[in-house]
Amino acid sequence: MELKNKSHVKIGTLCSISFLVISYLIFRTEFPKTPTILLYNLVIIFSLQGLGFNRGALSLGAAVFLTTLLAVSTNFHYAWNTVVFFIVFLIVNSRIKNRDYYTRIIQARIGEVRENTNVLSDEYEKHRKETLLLERKEQRYRLLKDATSTLNSTLSIEKVAEYILDSALQIIGKTESALVYLVDTKKQELSLVLSRVSRDFDRVKAKKGDLLDETVFKERRCLLVEDIKKDFRFGEHKMKAQERSFRSVISCPLMEESKVSGIVRLEHSSPNDYTSEDLRLLDILCDLGAVSLENARLYKQTLDLAITDGLTGLYLRRYFIERLSKEIQHSLRNDFEFSFLMIDIDNFKNYNDKYGHTAGDIVLKTISAVLNRYVNSGVACRYGGEEFSLFLPQTSRKAAIKTAEDLKKAVKKEIVELRRVKTSVTVSIGVSSFPDDTRVQDELIMKADERLYMAKRQGKDKVVG
């Protein structure tokens, strides 16, 4: 408005000066009167267009007055110019009205176009966001499909847990810490088996889970926490032992039928990072992962049954020989030494004859339990009947003989109750060493076997190395 007023002042000033100049030329100079009078038309047109009808009419009145004054003072025929002034004024005013009319129509059309443009722009932005959302969903479901194929073809518990975690990070994204807990079936408690933690995120100290994991484990349902500090279920007084800095969490159980086999948990340091859609996708992934996890466990059990003795839980002879062969190759390559123990239960037949075969099974289980305590990084097996074998990697003959003596004493200390009679068992042990005795597998076993029978001949309950 202020700019428009300044423009009107400038135009009004210019018109006034023009009138003065033209009037001076008419009344004070010898210029031809009629052409000079017609210059008033230009001022009328200019003021009409620049200042509007009222001020244009004022310019018209001034021109008529000055022209009439000239006609009265000099020659009356100059009065005909006033008719020209009116005609010009009417024509220009009509043109201006038409122009204003069409201008208003154009402006109205422009307004409609702008309004439609804004509507279309809003719709475009809405559709663009919907398209991005659909593309993201399509990508997530494609990743979910790929994860399904991968999980179905995986029969390793460790690999299944790794694929579940990696797939969760790919599908859900926006995660700074990801954890997988599996249930220890013997202790019936959670155990952290895998984690992915960003560089700036706190390390996981609760290896058996915290209140959040206990909630998921006990209630057997998914959990979404938008802000841990504002959730009354997990307030600071309840999470006082929590030293990690996450704010938002989603967590889902790995469930096979009604049994929880593990938990997958994703965390972020910002609140409101996860949505119910994220939780739903994680739940689907966990359902798939739970099936694969159960398949992997069944596969492992099948393998264990194929290579372990059903009574004692020790490895069978065939698998033990394979491992022994690999250990010899490994020791040859790295110039390591290791030792081999052959163990036999003394007077085992007497236990079977006196107490029955069930008593013999109890004795075998007792010896196996003791033997497992001395395996360390080695491998123990039931070699056949009442014979057992054990190899000790990177163990010298001297250290192996000491281990054999400790094992013999530990077996003798075990109390075995057979038909309400408490008794004890003794073993004889033969020790051979690689490479001191031989570098050949069969000879290593044979030397240990010979020394075992030497211990038997020396009165049993002996170690010969």
For the sheet with most strands, the description reads: 5 strands, antiparallel
The CATH class assignment of the largest domain is: Alpha Beta
- Order of adjacent strands in the largest pleated sheet: 2-1-5-4-3
Task: Summarize the helix and strand pattern as letters.
Answer: HHHHHEEHEEEHHEHHEEHEEEHE
Task: Provide the number of structural domains.
Answer: 3
| Number of separate strands | 12
CATH architecture of the largest domain: 2-Layer Sandwich
Counting copies of identical and different chains, the oligomeric state is single chain
CATH-assigned fold name of the largest domain: Alpha-Beta Plaits
CATH H level, superfamily name of the largest domain? Reverse transcriptase/Diguanylate cyclase domain
N→C terminal distance: 113 Å
- Rg, nearest Å: 51 Å
Sum up the overall morphology in one term.
rod-shaped
Overall structural class, as computed from helix and strand content, comes to: alpha+beta
Beta fraction: 15-25%
Average pLDDT for all residues: 84
> Percent range for helical residues?
55-70%
Low-confidence stretches: none
> Counting H and I runs of at least 4 residues, what is the number of helices?
12
Report on the structure:
The chain folds into 3 domains: 101 residues; 145 residues, GAF domain (Beta-Lactamase); 148 residues, 2-Layer Sandwich (Alpha-Beta Plaits), CATH 3.30.70. It is of the alpha+beta class. The strands form 3 sheets. The chain has a 5-stranded antiparallel sheet with strand order 2-1-5-4-3, with helices on both faces. A 5-stranded mixed sheet has the order 7-8-6-11-12, sandwiched between helices. A two-stranded antiparallel sheet has the order 9-10. It is built from 12 helices and 12 strands. It starts with a helix and ends with a strand.
